[in-house]
Write a structure and sequence with these properties.
12 helices; alpha/beta; about 30% helix; globular
């Protein structure tokens, strides 16, 4: 079987993520991170003028509270699925699961399906107490470690093309381990389908349908609440661009249409400028692009902003930013790297947090 990595937004992000620092280990079971206390959008009073705030707003959601749709599901095996690459994969045993991707979404999904006890390892992005005692199988950030994976003797591996090197995935298949490659795309449009593929692969399709329906409903309820608060007219919405930065490696990208950031911005109540300036995918950002975009606010990953020395360092690197409303007011929303584009089980919480940051930042 020939497996080839798919060129998707998440694949491109892997290249960028490799430039970043290693994420700190997850907290222990008795040390659930408090993170940023984020009220529900309906509980806060939005600013009368959405542009009447200055400075950086940092958001780091607390560790999720795992709420499985079923406590002890009984997998029906063997399970046969067609994965995102069109390959048929047969899974006979789910007693030792590895679920690995750049945001920890797959591992979180397995726990929400009620099969967390079967997970034997984790990637560096799986950052919640229930998985903290599992050994890491990634190194140097998001690089798969074949020896660490094989040492855990997994009976099934769920992954996508956001982690590499791809030769490790091929090595696992050569060792006879069923590998299910899921869609690397993260967005509102595939929350349920991604959840169902994970569940189908593990022999718990009914749990997958319930979880997918629950996550879609939570996201729909949140976007409806945001629509009640965000300005209805496009001119009233905050013009927003997503910058991916790794200053120590000289990586400065602006995410556009099809990157996942576009749907995130729109769902959170912002105005995504990408379509207006014909910016698709992920491309190196330029002063000209920033001026054309004229953003009111920048959305970034926390470690990315830190890597350039904060708002001052970003303005020093891109002086043209000072000629935009976002730069003039140093108006930046910085969200935890593993959360901001994760979608999956945390979609509703991420959207709510970003909407509060956009329209009621004084509540954070």
């Amino acid at each position: 079987m020939l497996r080839l990595p798919i060129a998707t937004a998440a694949t491109a992000l892997l290249v960028l993520a490799g430039c970043g620092p290693v994420v700190d280990p997850a907290a222990g079971d008795d040390d659930r991170r408090a993170g940023t206390s984020v009220p529900r959008l309906g509980e806060v009073t939005p600013l009368a003028d959405p542009r009447a705030w200055d400075g950086v707003v940092e958001v780091d959601l607390p560790d999720p509270v795992i709420d499985p749709v079923e406590d002890s599901p009984a997998p029906r095996l063997p399970a046969t699925v067609t994965d995102a690459q069109g390959d048929e994969v047969v899974v006979d045993d789910v007693s030792r699961i590895l679920a690995l991707d750049i945001y920890g979404t797959l591992a979180h999904t397995v726990f929400e399906l009620g099969l967390g006890d079967n997970v034997v390892g984790r990637d560096v992005s799986a950052q919640f107490p229930e998985i903290a005692d599992r050994p890491l199988v990634t190194q140097n950030g998001h690089e798969l470690n074949a020896e660490a994976i094989l040492a855990l003797d997994p009976t099934v591996v769920l992954t996508d093309t956001s982690l590499g090197p791809w030769d490790v995935v091929l090595q696992l298949e050569d060792a006879g381990i069923p590998v299910v490659v899921t869609d690397s795309h993260r967005g509102l449009d595939n929350i349920a389908s991604l959840t169902r593929l994970v569940a189908d692969s593990l022999g718990v399709p009914e749990a997958g349908k319930r979880l997918g329906d629950r996550l879609e409903q939570e996201a729909a309820d949140t976007t409806a609440a945001i629509a009640e608060v965000a300005p209805q007219d496009v001119t009233g919405k905050l013009r927003t661009v997503f910058l991916y930065v790794r200053g120590q490696a000289g990586v400065y990208y602006m995410f556009g249409e099809g990157s996942g950031a576009d749907s995130l911005i729109s769902a959170a109540g912002g105005y995504d400028v990408a379509e207006e300036i014909d910016w698709s995918g992920m491309k190196p950002v330029t002063d000209e692009a920033l001026i054309d975009a004229a953003p009111d606010v920048l959305l970034m990953m926390t470690k990315g902003l830190d890597s350039v020395g904060g708002a001052d360092g970003l303005l020093e690197r891109f002086p043209a930013l000072a000629n935009t409303p976002a730069g003039e007011h140093e108006r930046i929303i910085a969200m935890d790297d593993d959360q901001v584009l994760s979608f999956g089980p945390r979609t509703a919480d991420v959207l709510n947090a970003l909407a509060v940051a956009l329209y009621a930042p004084d509540a954070l």
